[in-house]
Amino acid sequence: MTHRTRLKWLHWLSFFIILWFWTVEPENVERMGGAALGVHAGMGVVLAVLSAMWMGMYLRRGLASRPGPKLPGWARWVHPWMHKGLIWGLPTMVLSGGLAGFAAPYAIKLFGVVPFFPGVGHDRLHGALQDLHELCFDAMLIALFAHVGFHLWRHYVVKDNALRIMAPKRVHKYL
């Protein structure tokens, strides 16, 4: 598997997991009880593994993409900072969720099966870390929507085929 293929897999798996977190809000999880919280924590661990892989690839090789030659000056400046923000923001968001889980006053089992957090935390600390995690997640969503908007703009306005870089080859004929 090539480096670009690994990046595409990480990119799309991360996207769909974050989309799942966005559609299954924490309030929904709380109403569903402990099993749903376990699924939430389990999906968080899966995202943490993907995030660690992505961060490792970034630290070893740097950014995979460079600003395209058709981009105006401001977009050439925004491009690397936006990608670095996403690369560093994802593990920050995942870490904040892990800290919130660790500080929980109740035990959390990944996917309702694997004991992960012991449940020795404190209500107030857990609440504060949950708020921090939600703030990190909201910031990540804003960055993600900006990222998607930027690449749609590149593809349809600048016409540099930016979407083909990370899209699977099967869908290139539709782009």
Question: Could you explain how this protein is built, in words?
Answer:
This protein is mainly alpha-helical and 175 residues long. The chain has one domain. Helices cover 73% and strands 4% of the residues. It contains six helices and two strands, in the order ααααββαα. It has helices at 3-23, 26-32, 34-61, 73-102, 123-158, 162-166, and strands at 108-110, 114-117. The chain has a two-stranded antiparallel sheet with strand order 1-2. Strand 1 and strand 2 (114-117) form a beta hairpin. The protein is elongated and about 55 Å long. The relative contact order is 0.13. The mean pLDDT is 86.
Helical residue percent? over 70%
Provide the gyration radius in Å. 18 Å
Structural class: mainly alpha
Q: How would you sum up the major sheet?
A: 2 strands, antiparallel
Number of strands: 2
Domain tally: 1
Give the termini separation. 24 Å
Can you tell me the overall shape? elongated
- Tell me the strand percentage band: under 5%
Describe, in short, the structure shown.
The protein has six helices and two strands, in the order ααααββαα. It is mainly alpha-helical and 175 residues long.
Strand-helix topology:
Blueprint: H1 3-23, H2 26-32, H3 34-61, H4 73-102, E1 108-110, E2 114-117, H5 123-158, H6 162-166
Helix pairs in contact: 1-3, 3-4, 4-5
